[in-house]
Protein backbone atom coordinates (compact mmCIF):
# COMPACT_ATOMS: atom_id res chain seq x y z
CA UNK A 1 0.00 0.00 0.00
CA UNK A 2 1.13 3.50 -0.82
CA UNK A 3 -0.13 6.95 0.01
CA UNK A 4 -1.57 9.03 -2.79
CA UNK A 5 -2.66 12.65 -2.33
CA UNK A 6 -5.02 14.22 -4.84
CA UNK A 7 -3.30 17.59 -5.30
CA UNK A 8 -6.37 19.11 -6.92
CA UNK A 9 -8.43 18.40 -3.81
CA UNK A 10 -5.73 19.09 -1.20
CA UNK A 11 -5.94 22.55 0.38
CA UNK A 12 -3.05 22.14 2.82
CA UNK A 13 -5.17 22.05 5.95
CA UNK A 14 -2.44 20.01 7.62
CA UNK A 15 -4.64 17.64 9.61
CA UNK A 16 -2.71 14.69 8.18
CA UNK A 17 0.54 16.13 9.56
CA UNK A 18 -1.00 15.98 13.02
CA UNK A 19 -2.26 12.39 12.64
CA UNK A 20 0.83 10.95 10.95
CA UNK A 21 3.86 13.25 11.20
CA UNK A 22 6.05 10.36 10.01
CA UNK A 23 4.68 10.74 6.49
CA UNK A 24 3.09 14.17 6.15
CA UNK A 25 4.33 17.67 6.83
CA UNK A 26 3.63 21.22 5.81
CA UNK A 27 6.71 23.03 4.56
CA UNK A 28 7.51 26.63 5.53
CA UNK A 29 5.26 27.87 2.71
CA UNK A 30 2.38 25.82 4.04
CA UNK A 31 2.50 23.30 1.17
CA UNK A 32 1.95 19.65 1.96
CA UNK A 33 4.95 17.36 1.51
CA UNK A 34 4.54 13.63 1.99
CA UNK A 35 6.22 10.28 1.61
CA UNK A 36 4.32 7.61 -0.31
CA UNK A 37 5.77 4.61 1.46
CA UNK A 38 5.00 3.76 5.05
CA UNK A 39 5.77 0.91 7.35
CA UNK A 40 2.98 -1.40 8.45
CA UNK A 41 3.42 -0.49 12.10
CA UNK A 42 2.22 3.05 11.32
CA UNK A 43 -0.95 1.93 9.54
CA UNK A 44 -3.35 3.20 12.20
CA UNK A 45 -1.76 6.68 12.12
CA UNK A 46 -1.92 6.67 8.33
CA UNK A 47 -5.59 5.62 8.35
CA UNK A 48 -6.24 8.36 10.88
CA UNK A 49 -4.62 10.85 8.49
CA UNK A 50 -6.82 9.61 5.62
CA UNK A 51 -9.94 10.07 7.76
CA UNK A 52 -8.96 13.43 9.18
CA UNK A 53 -8.61 15.17 5.81
CA UNK A 54 -11.56 17.56 5.48
CA UNK A 55 -11.22 17.40 1.70
CA UNK A 56 -10.90 13.60 1.56
CA UNK A 57 -7.84 14.07 -0.63
CA UNK A 58 -5.76 11.17 0.70
CA UNK A 59 -6.06 7.65 -0.69
CA UNK A 60 -4.24 4.42 0.02
CA UNK A 61 -3.47 2.53 -3.17
CA UNK A 62 -1.91 -0.87 -3.54
CA UNK B 1 -33.79 -10.67 23.27
CA UNK B 2 -31.74 -12.61 20.69
CA UNK B 3 -32.92 -12.56 17.08
CA UNK B 4 -35.15 -15.41 15.96
CA UNK B 5 -33.21 -18.58 15.33
CA UNK B 6 -32.29 -19.02 11.69
CA UNK B 7 -32.97 -15.44 10.67
CA UNK B 8 -30.25 -12.86 10.18
CA UNK B 9 -30.45 -10.00 12.64
CA UNK B 10 -31.58 -6.66 11.27
CA UNK B 11 -29.68 -3.47 11.97
CA UNK B 12 -31.18 -0.06 11.33
CA UNK B 13 -28.98 3.00 10.91
CA UNK B 14 -30.82 6.29 11.00
CA UNK B 15 -28.82 8.89 9.09
CA UNK B 16 -26.85 8.49 5.86
CA UNK B 17 -24.11 10.98 6.70
CA UNK B 18 -20.53 9.98 7.38
CA UNK B 19 -21.26 8.77 10.96
CA UNK B 20 -23.96 6.39 9.73
CA UNK B 21 -21.83 5.13 6.86
CA UNK B 22 -18.81 4.56 9.11
CA UNK B 23 -20.97 2.67 11.60
CA UNK B 24 -22.18 0.43 8.73
CA UNK B 25 -18.61 -0.14 7.53
CA UNK B 26 -17.43 -1.01 11.04
CA UNK B 27 -20.26 -3.53 11.45
CA UNK B 28 -19.41 -5.13 8.10
CA UNK B 29 -15.73 -5.22 9.01
CA UNK B 30 -16.58 -7.14 12.21
CA UNK B 31 -18.27 -9.75 9.98
CA UNK B 32 -21.64 -9.53 11.65
CA UNK B 33 -23.99 -11.66 9.55
CA UNK B 34 -26.78 -9.12 9.59
CA UNK B 35 -28.92 -7.15 7.18
CA UNK B 36 -28.14 -3.47 7.51
CA UNK B 37 -30.54 -0.79 6.36
CA UNK B 38 -29.33 2.81 6.17
CA UNK B 39 -32.09 5.43 6.23
CA UNK B 40 -31.43 8.92 4.91
CA UNK B 41 -33.94 11.71 4.43
CA UNK B 42 -31.85 13.32 1.70
CA UNK B 43 -31.91 11.85 -1.80
CA UNK B 44 -28.09 11.61 -1.85
CA UNK B 45 -25.74 8.99 -0.61
CA UNK B 46 -23.04 10.00 1.89
CA UNK B 47 -20.98 12.99 0.84
CA UNK B 48 -18.14 15.05 2.28
CA UNK B 49 -19.97 17.85 4.04
CA UNK B 50 -16.89 20.01 4.82
CA UNK B 51 -16.16 20.04 1.08
CA UNK B 52 -19.37 21.91 0.28
CA UNK B 53 -17.91 25.35 1.02
CA UNK B 54 -14.23 24.84 0.38
CA UNK B 55 -13.83 25.81 -3.24
CA UNK B 56 -15.11 27.92 -6.08
CA UNK B 57 -16.37 26.18 -9.20
CA UNK B 58 -16.03 27.43 -12.77
CA UNK B 59 -19.15 28.49 -14.63
CA UNK B 60 -20.72 25.39 -16.09
CA UNK B 61 -24.09 23.93 -17.01
CA UNK B 62 -22.99 20.86 -15.10
CA UNK B 63 -22.34 22.67 -11.80
CA UNK B 64 -24.68 20.43 -9.79
CA UNK B 65 -22.94 17.32 -11.06
CA UNK B 66 -19.47 18.77 -10.53
CA UNK B 67 -20.16 19.52 -6.88
CA UNK B 68 -21.72 16.09 -6.26
CA UNK B 69 -18.77 14.36 -7.93
CA UNK B 70 -16.29 16.43 -5.94
CA UNK B 71 -17.75 15.62 -2.53
CA UNK B 72 -18.56 11.98 -3.26
CA UNK B 73 -17.58 9.53 -0.52
CA UNK B 74 -17.04 5.91 -1.44
CA UNK B 75 -19.91 3.93 0.04
CA UNK B 76 -19.71 0.40 1.33
CA UNK B 77 -20.65 -1.76 -1.66
CA UNK B 78 -22.01 -4.85 0.02
CA UNK B 79 -25.10 -7.01 -0.49
CA UNK B 80 -25.77 -6.91 3.24
CA UNK B 81 -26.30 -3.15 3.12
CA UNK B 82 -29.49 -1.53 1.79
CA UNK B 83 -29.81 2.23 1.27
CA UNK B 84 -33.24 3.75 1.90
CA UNK B 85 -32.72 7.31 0.67
CA UNK B 86 -35.43 9.94 0.71
CA UNK B 87 -36.95 8.04 3.62
CA UNK B 88 -37.42 9.76 6.93
CA UNK B 89 -37.77 7.88 10.19
CA UNK B 90 -40.71 9.60 11.83
CA UNK B 91 -40.80 7.90 15.22
CA UNK B 92 -39.11 5.07 17.06
CA UNK B 93 -40.35 2.70 19.70
CA UNK B 94 -37.19 1.45 21.40
CA UNK B 95 -39.03 -0.97 23.70
CA UNK B 96 -40.68 -2.82 20.80
CA UNK B 97 -37.68 -2.15 18.52
CA UNK B 98 -39.70 -0.63 15.70
CA UNK B 99 -39.07 2.38 13.46
CA UNK B 100 -41.99 4.12 11.79
CA UNK B 101 -41.09 5.50 8.37
CA UNK B 102 -42.35 8.44 6.34
CA UNK B 103 -43.58 5.95 3.73
CA UNK B 104 -46.02 4.45 6.24
CA UNK B 105 -43.92 1.30 6.55
CA UNK B 106 -42.38 0.00 9.74
CA UNK B 107 -38.92 -1.49 10.29
CA UNK B 108 -38.19 -3.94 13.07
CA UNK B 109 -34.61 -4.01 14.23
CA UNK B 110 -32.35 -6.04 16.46
CA UNK B 111 -29.74 -3.31 16.63
CA UNK B 112 -30.02 0.45 16.05
CA UNK B 113 -27.54 3.24 15.34
CA UNK B 114 -28.80 6.79 15.77
CA UNK B 115 -26.85 9.08 13.45
CA UNK B 116 -29.55 11.58 12.59
CA UNK B 117 -27.23 14.59 12.89
CA UNK B 118 -28.25 18.18 13.28
CA UNK B 119 -30.08 20.77 11.20
CA UNK B 120 -29.33 24.49 10.99
CA UNK B 121 -30.96 26.75 13.51
CA UNK B 122 -33.02 29.42 11.83
CA UNK B 123 -34.91 32.44 13.05
CA UNK B 124 -37.90 31.72 10.84
CA UNK B 125 -39.69 28.51 10.09
CA UNK B 126 -38.20 26.54 7.25
CA UNK B 127 -36.76 28.63 4.47
CA UNK B 128 -39.51 31.18 5.01
CA UNK B 129 -39.50 34.76 3.90
CA UNK B 130 -39.45 37.41 6.58
CA UNK B 131 -40.87 40.18 4.47
CA UNK B 132 -37.47 41.42 3.32
CA UNK B 133 -35.42 38.35 2.55
CA UNK B 134 -35.64 34.76 1.57
CA UNK B 135 -33.91 33.17 4.56
CA UNK B 136 -31.74 30.22 3.66
CA UNK B 137 -29.37 27.97 5.56
CA UNK B 138 -26.44 25.83 4.50
CA UNK B 139 -26.22 22.24 5.59
CA UNK B 140 -26.82 19.78 2.78
CA UNK B 141 -25.70 19.24 -0.79
CA UNK B 142 -28.87 20.81 -2.18
CA UNK B 143 -28.30 23.96 -0.09
CA UNK B 144 -24.71 24.15 -1.34
CA UNK B 145 -25.75 23.81 -4.98
CA UNK B 146 -28.27 26.61 -4.60
CA UNK B 147 -25.72 28.91 -2.95
CA UNK B 148 -22.93 28.20 -5.46
CA UNK B 149 -25.36 29.06 -8.28
CA UNK B 150 -26.29 32.37 -6.67
CA UNK B 151 -22.67 33.26 -5.84
CA UNK B 152 -21.58 32.49 -9.38
CA UNK B 153 -24.02 35.14 -10.51
CA UNK B 154 -22.00 37.62 -8.39
CA UNK B 155 -24.85 38.49 -6.07
CA UNK B 156 -24.41 40.39 -2.86
CA UNK B 157 -24.68 38.08 0.14
CA UNK B 158 -25.64 38.77 3.75
CA UNK B 159 -24.49 36.19 6.28
CA UNK B 160 -25.80 36.06 9.82
CA UNK B 161 -23.36 34.52 12.30
CA UNK B 162 -19.57 34.22 12.56
CA UNK B 163 -18.95 30.51 13.14
CA UNK B 164 -17.30 28.01 10.84
CA UNK B 165 -20.09 27.83 8.29
CA UNK B 166 -20.45 31.61 8.22
CA UNK B 167 -16.72 32.28 7.81
CA UNK B 168 -16.15 29.64 5.15
CA UNK B 169 -19.15 30.89 3.25
CA UNK B 170 -17.92 34.50 3.46
CA UNK B 171 -14.53 33.36 2.20
CA UNK B 172 -16.13 31.45 -0.67
CA UNK B 173 -18.31 34.41 -1.62
CA UNK B 174 -15.23 36.67 -1.80
CA UNK B 175 -13.55 34.12 -4.07
CA UNK B 176 -16.54 34.38 -6.36
CA UNK B 177 -16.10 38.16 -6.28
CA UNK B 178 -19.30 38.91 -4.37
CA UNK B 179 -19.96 41.74 -1.97
CA UNK B 180 -20.21 40.27 1.55
CA UNK B 181 -21.97 41.61 4.63
CA UNK B 182 -21.63 39.64 7.88
CA UNK B 183 -23.82 40.28 10.91
CA UNK B 184 -22.82 39.00 14.35
CA UNK B 185 -25.03 40.59 16.96
CA UNK B 186 -24.06 38.45 19.94
CA UNK B 187 -20.26 38.22 19.92
CA UNK B 188 -17.22 40.36 19.13
CA UNK B 189 -15.92 38.25 16.26
CA UNK B 190 -15.51 34.82 14.70
CA UNK B 191 -15.29 31.71 16.93
CA UNK B 192 -15.39 33.78 20.12
CA UNK B 193 -16.98 31.01 22.19
CA UNK B 194 -14.09 28.67 21.28
CA UNK B 195 -11.04 30.91 20.93
CA UNK B 196 -11.88 33.77 23.27
CA UNK B 197 -12.33 37.49 22.72
CA UNK B 198 -8.78 38.54 21.81
CA UNK B 199 -8.37 36.02 19.00
CA UNK B 200 -11.94 36.62 17.92
CA UNK B 201 -11.42 40.38 17.56
CA UNK B 202 -8.22 39.76 15.57
CA UNK B 203 -10.14 37.44 13.24
CA UNK B 204 -12.85 40.08 12.83
CA UNK B 205 -10.13 42.52 11.71
CA UNK B 206 -8.86 39.89 9.27
CA UNK B 207 -12.31 39.75 7.65
CA UNK B 208 -12.50 43.53 7.44
CA UNK B 209 -9.01 43.72 5.91
CA UNK B 210 -10.31 41.44 3.16
CA UNK B 211 -13.11 43.71 2.13
CA UNK B 212 -15.88 42.03 4.11
CA UNK B 213 -18.27 44.33 5.92
CA UNK B 214 -18.27 42.73 9.36
CA UNK B 215 -20.71 44.26 11.81
CA UNK B 216 -21.17 43.34 15.46
CA UNK B 217 -23.43 44.41 18.32
CA UNK B 218 -26.13 46.98 17.71
CA UNK B 219 -25.00 47.86 14.21
CA UNK B 220 -25.51 44.19 13.28
CA UNK B 221 -28.74 43.93 15.22
CA UNK B 222 -30.25 46.89 13.37
CA UNK B 223 -29.85 45.05 10.10
CA UNK B 224 -31.38 41.81 11.29
CA UNK B 225 -34.90 41.74 10.08
CA UNK B 226 -38.32 41.47 11.52
CA UNK B 227 -38.68 37.78 11.99
CA UNK B 228 -42.41 37.36 11.68
CA UNK B 229 -43.04 35.08 8.71
CA UNK B 230 -46.37 36.77 8.09
CA UNK B 231 -44.94 40.28 8.38
CA UNK B 232 -46.95 42.40 5.96
CA UNK B 233 -44.03 44.62 4.96
CA UNK B 234 -42.70 45.26 1.48
CA UNK B 235 -42.33 42.18 -0.70
CA UNK B 236 -39.09 40.26 -0.36
CA UNK B 237 -36.38 41.39 -2.75
CA UNK B 238 -35.12 37.81 -2.74
CA UNK B 239 -31.63 38.96 -1.78
CA UNK B 240 -29.28 36.22 -0.68
CA UNK B 241 -29.56 36.08 3.11
CA UNK B 242 -27.96 33.08 4.78
CA UNK B 243 -28.36 32.27 8.44
CA UNK B 244 -25.43 30.38 9.95
CA UNK B 245 -26.34 30.69 13.59
CA UNK B 246 -25.76 27.20 14.90
CA UNK B 247 -27.63 23.97 14.80
CA UNK B 248 -30.33 21.88 16.41
CA UNK B 249 -29.94 18.12 17.01
CA UNK B 250 -32.43 15.95 15.14
CA UNK B 251 -33.93 14.08 18.09
CA UNK B 252 -37.66 14.74 17.84
CA UNK B 253 -38.28 11.28 16.34
CA UNK B 254 -36.96 9.73 19.57
CA UNK B 255 -39.44 11.42 21.88
CA UNK B 256 -41.53 9.16 24.10
CA UNK B 257 -38.73 6.71 24.87
CA UNK B 258 -37.59 8.27 28.14
CA UNK B 259 -34.18 9.26 26.76
CA UNK B 260 -32.13 12.28 27.86
CA UNK B 261 -32.47 14.45 24.75
CA UNK B 262 -31.50 17.77 26.35
CA UNK B 263 -28.44 18.14 24.09
CA UNK B 264 -28.57 15.52 21.35
CA UNK B 265 -28.63 11.89 22.43
CA UNK B 266 -26.80 11.03 25.63
CA UNK B 267 -24.47 8.02 25.25
CA UNK B 268 -21.85 6.31 27.40
CA UNK B 269 -18.17 5.94 26.50
CA UNK B 270 -19.05 3.07 24.13
CA UNK B 271 -21.66 5.18 22.32
CA UNK B 272 -24.40 3.08 23.90
CA UNK B 273 -27.75 4.70 24.61
CA UNK B 274 -28.65 3.53 28.12
CA UNK B 275 -30.65 1.62 29.17
CA UNK B 276 -30.85 -0.11 25.80
CA UNK B 277 -28.13 -2.68 25.14
CA UNK B 278 -28.86 -2.66 21.38
CA UNK B 279 -29.07 1.09 20.68
CA UNK B 280 -26.07 3.31 19.88
CA UNK B 281 -25.61 6.88 18.71
CA UNK B 282 -22.83 8.60 16.76
CA UNK B 283 -21.84 11.77 14.97
CA UNK B 284 -23.10 15.31 15.51
CA UNK B 285 -26.09 14.09 17.51
CA UNK B 286 -24.17 12.05 20.09
CA UNK B 287 -23.44 13.65 23.46
CA UNK B 288 -20.70 11.67 25.16
CA UNK B 289 -18.42 11.79 28.21
CA UNK B 290 -15.64 14.20 27.33
CA UNK B 291 -12.32 12.33 27.51
CA UNK B 292 -10.64 15.74 27.82
CA UNK B 293 -12.43 17.15 30.82
CA UNK B 294 -13.55 14.29 33.08
CA UNK B 295 -17.04 14.76 34.47
CA UNK B 296 -18.18 16.82 31.48
CA UNK B 297 -20.20 15.85 28.44
CA UNK B 298 -19.36 16.94 24.92
CA UNK B 299 -21.09 16.99 21.57
CA UNK B 300 -18.97 17.90 18.56
CA UNK B 301 -19.96 18.79 15.04
CA UNK B 302 -16.78 18.02 13.15
CA UNK B 303 -16.04 15.62 10.32
CA UNK B 304 -13.45 13.60 12.21
CA UNK B 305 -15.67 13.33 15.25
CA UNK B 306 -18.41 11.81 13.09
CA UNK B 307 -15.92 9.30 11.66
CA UNK B 308 -14.46 8.24 14.99
CA UNK B 309 -17.75 8.02 16.87
CA UNK B 310 -19.40 6.26 13.90
CA UNK B 311 -16.63 3.66 13.90
CA UNK B 312 -16.93 3.18 17.63
CA UNK B 313 -20.74 2.86 17.57
CA UNK B 314 -20.47 0.24 14.81
CA UNK B 315 -17.84 -1.75 16.68
CA UNK B 316 -19.81 -1.55 19.92
CA UNK B 317 -22.94 -2.76 18.17
CA UNK B 318 -21.04 -5.65 16.58
CA UNK B 319 -19.63 -6.52 19.98
CA UNK B 320 -23.13 -6.48 21.50
CA UNK B 321 -24.07 -9.13 18.91
CA UNK B 322 -21.12 -11.27 19.89
CA UNK B 323 -18.65 -10.11 17.23
CA UNK B 324 -15.35 -8.74 18.34
CA UNK B 325 -14.12 -7.77 21.77
CA UNK B 326 -15.71 -5.09 23.89
CA UNK B 327 -14.52 -2.02 22.10
CA UNK B 328 -12.08 0.56 23.26
CA UNK B 329 -13.34 3.70 24.89
CA UNK B 330 -13.37 7.01 23.07
CA UNK B 331 -9.80 7.84 22.17
CA UNK B 332 -10.72 10.74 20.00
CA UNK B 333 -8.34 13.70 19.82
CA UNK B 334 -10.29 16.81 18.83
CA UNK B 335 -8.51 18.51 15.95
CA UNK B 336 -9.98 20.55 13.16
CA UNK B 337 -9.07 23.18 10.64
CA UNK B 338 -10.60 25.74 8.38
CA UNK B 339 -9.37 28.33 5.95
CA UNK B 340 -10.74 31.85 5.92
CA UNK B 341 -9.54 34.19 3.19
CA UNK B 342 -6.19 32.48 2.89
CA UNK B 343 -5.65 32.17 6.63
CA UNK B 344 -5.37 28.57 7.85
CA UNK B 345 -6.92 28.17 11.29
CA UNK B 346 -6.19 24.97 13.20
CA UNK B 347 -7.76 24.20 16.55
CA UNK B 348 -7.12 21.21 18.80
CA UNK B 349 -7.99 19.94 22.23
CA UNK B 350 -10.71 21.78 24.07
CA UNK B 351 -10.00 25.53 24.17
CA UNK B 352 -13.67 26.17 24.95
CA UNK B 353 -13.09 24.93 28.51
CA UNK B 354 -10.05 27.13 29.17
CA UNK B 355 -9.78 29.88 31.77
CA UNK B 356 -6.65 31.54 30.33
CA UNK B 357 -4.75 31.90 27.07
CA UNK B 358 -1.13 32.49 26.20
CA UNK B 359 0.42 33.62 22.92
CA UNK B 360 3.25 31.13 22.34
CA UNK B 361 4.60 32.90 19.27
CA UNK B 362 3.51 35.56 16.82
CA UNK B 363 1.40 38.67 17.12
CA UNK B 364 -2.40 38.87 16.91
CA UNK B 365 -2.03 42.09 14.89
CA UNK B 366 -0.21 40.13 12.19
CA UNK B 367 -2.15 36.93 11.78
CA UNK B 368 -0.71 36.26 8.33
CA UNK B 369 2.77 36.01 9.89
CA UNK B 370 1.59 33.13 12.09
CA UNK B 371 0.24 33.07 15.64
CA UNK B 372 0.34 30.11 17.98
CA UNK B 373 -1.91 30.19 21.03
CA UNK B 374 -2.09 27.85 24.02
CA UNK B 375 -5.27 27.54 26.09
CA UNK B 376 -4.99 26.72 29.78
CA UNK B 377 -7.27 25.54 32.52
CA UNK B 378 -6.01 25.82 36.08
CA UNK B 379 -2.53 26.30 34.70
CA UNK B 380 -2.49 23.16 32.52
CA UNK B 381 -2.76 23.28 28.74
CA UNK B 382 -6.05 21.88 27.42
CA UNK B 383 -6.16 23.31 23.92
CA UNK B 384 -4.23 25.07 21.19
CA UNK B 385 -4.88 27.15 18.10
CA UNK B 386 -2.64 28.05 15.21
CA UNK B 387 -3.34 30.68 12.58
CA UNK B 388 -1.04 31.29 9.65
CA UNK B 389 -0.95 32.05 5.95
CA UNK B 390 2.06 29.81 5.53
CA UNK B 391 3.23 27.26 8.06
CA UNK B 392 6.28 28.74 9.79
CA UNK B 393 5.19 27.57 13.26
CA UNK B 394 3.64 24.31 12.14
CA UNK B 395 6.25 22.08 13.73
CA UNK B 396 5.93 24.03 16.98
CA UNK B 397 2.16 23.52 16.80
CA UNK B 398 2.53 19.78 16.24
CA UNK B 399 4.96 19.59 19.15
CA UNK B 400 2.45 21.43 21.32
CA UNK B 401 -0.28 18.96 20.31
CA UNK B 402 1.98 16.05 21.13
CA UNK B 403 2.30 17.21 24.71
CA UNK B 404 -1.45 17.89 24.76
CA UNK B 405 -2.22 14.34 23.61
CA UNK B 406 0.18 12.73 26.03
CA UNK B 407 -0.74 14.69 29.08
Counting DSSP H or I runs of 4 or more residues, the number of helices of chain B is: 9
Kindly report the CATH topology of the largest domain in chain B. FAD/NAD(P)-binding domain
Overall mean pLDDT of chain B: 91
CATH architecture descriptor of the largest domain in chain B: 3-Layer(bba) Sandwich
Global geometry of chain A: globular
pLDDT < 50 stretches of chain A: none
* Overall CATH class of the largest domain in chain B: Alpha Beta
Sheet with the most strands, sense and barrel status of chain A: 2 strands, antiparallel
User: Main sheet of chain B, how many strands, which sense, barrel?
Assistant: 5 strands, parallel
Q: Helix/strand/pairing class of chain A, anyone?
A: alpha+beta
Specify the helix fraction band of chain A.
10-25%
Report a brief summary of the structure.
The complex is a heterodimer of chains A (62) and B (407). With 62 residues, chain A is of the alpha+beta class. Chain A is 24% helix and 23% strand.
Task: Give the topology, please.
The complex is a heterodimer of chains A (62) and B (407).
Chain A: E1 2-5, H1 15-19, E2 24-26, E3 32-34, H2 43-52, E4 58-61
Antiparallel strand pairs in A: 1-4, 2-3
Chain B: E1 10-14, H1 18-29, E2 35-40, H2 63-70, E3 81-85, E4 89-93, E5 98-101, E6 106-108, E7 111-114, E8 118-120, E9 134-136, H3 141-152, E10 157-160, H4 164-175, E11 180-184, H5 192-195, H6 197-209, E12 213-216, H7 217-221, E13 240-243, E14 247-249, E15 265-266, E16 279-281, E17 286-289, E18 297-298, H8 303-320, E19 335-340, E20 343-349, E21 356-361, E22 371-377, E23 380-388, H9 394-405
Parallel strand pairs in B: 1-2, 1-7, 2-3, 7-16, 9-13, 10-11, 10-13, 11-12, 15-17
Antiparallel strand pairs in B: 4-5, 5-6, 8-14, 17-18, 19-20, 20-23, 21-22, 22-23
Report on this structure:
The complex is a heterodimer of chains A (62) and B (407). By secondary structure, chain A is of the alpha+beta class. Chain A has a single domain, classed as Alpha-Beta Plaits (2-Layer Sandwich). Chain A is built from 2 helices and 4 strands; from the N terminus they run βαββαβ. Chain A has helices at 15-19, 43-52, and strands at 2-5, 24-26, 32-34, 58-61. Chain A has a two-stranded antiparallel ribbon with strand order 1-4. In chain A, strands 2-3 form a two-stranded antiparallel ribbon. The N and C termini of chain A lie close together (4 Å). The mean pLDDT of chain A is 94. Chain B has 407 residues and is an alpha/beta fold. Chain B has 3 domains: 10-63 and 73-119 and 248-320, FAD/NAD(P)-binding domain (3-Layer(bba) Sandwich); 122-245, FAD/NAD(P)-binding domain (3-Layer(bba) Sandwich), CATH 3.50.50; 342-405, 2-Layer Sandwich (Enolase-like, domain 1). Chain B has a 5-stranded parallel sheet with strand order 3-2-1-7-16, with helices on one face. In chain B, helix 1 runs parallel beside helix 8 (303-320). In chain B, 47% of the residues are buried. Residues 228-233 of chain B have low confidence and may be disordered. The chains are: A alpha+beta (62), B alpha/beta (407). Chain A binds chain B through residues 9, 11-15, 17-19, 21, 25-31, 51-52, 54-56, and chain B through 48, 50-51, 54-55, 70-71, 73, 303-304, 307-308, 335-339, 344, 346, 348, 388-392, 394-395, 398, 401.
Amino acid sequence: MKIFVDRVKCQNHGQCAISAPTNFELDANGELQYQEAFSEENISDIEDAVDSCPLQAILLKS
Amino acid sequence: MPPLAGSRPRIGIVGSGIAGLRAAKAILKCKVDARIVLFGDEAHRTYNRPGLTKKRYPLSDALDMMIAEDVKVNGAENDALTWRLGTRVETADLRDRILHLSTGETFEYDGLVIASGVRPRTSVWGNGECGLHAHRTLRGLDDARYIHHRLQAGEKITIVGAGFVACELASLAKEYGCEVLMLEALRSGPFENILGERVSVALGRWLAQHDITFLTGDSARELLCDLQPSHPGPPSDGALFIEAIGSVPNVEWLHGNGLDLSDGVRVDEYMRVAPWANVFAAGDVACYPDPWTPGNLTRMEFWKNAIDTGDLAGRSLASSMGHGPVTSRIGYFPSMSTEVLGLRIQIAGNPRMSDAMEIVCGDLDQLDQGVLVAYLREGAMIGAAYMDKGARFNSAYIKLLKSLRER
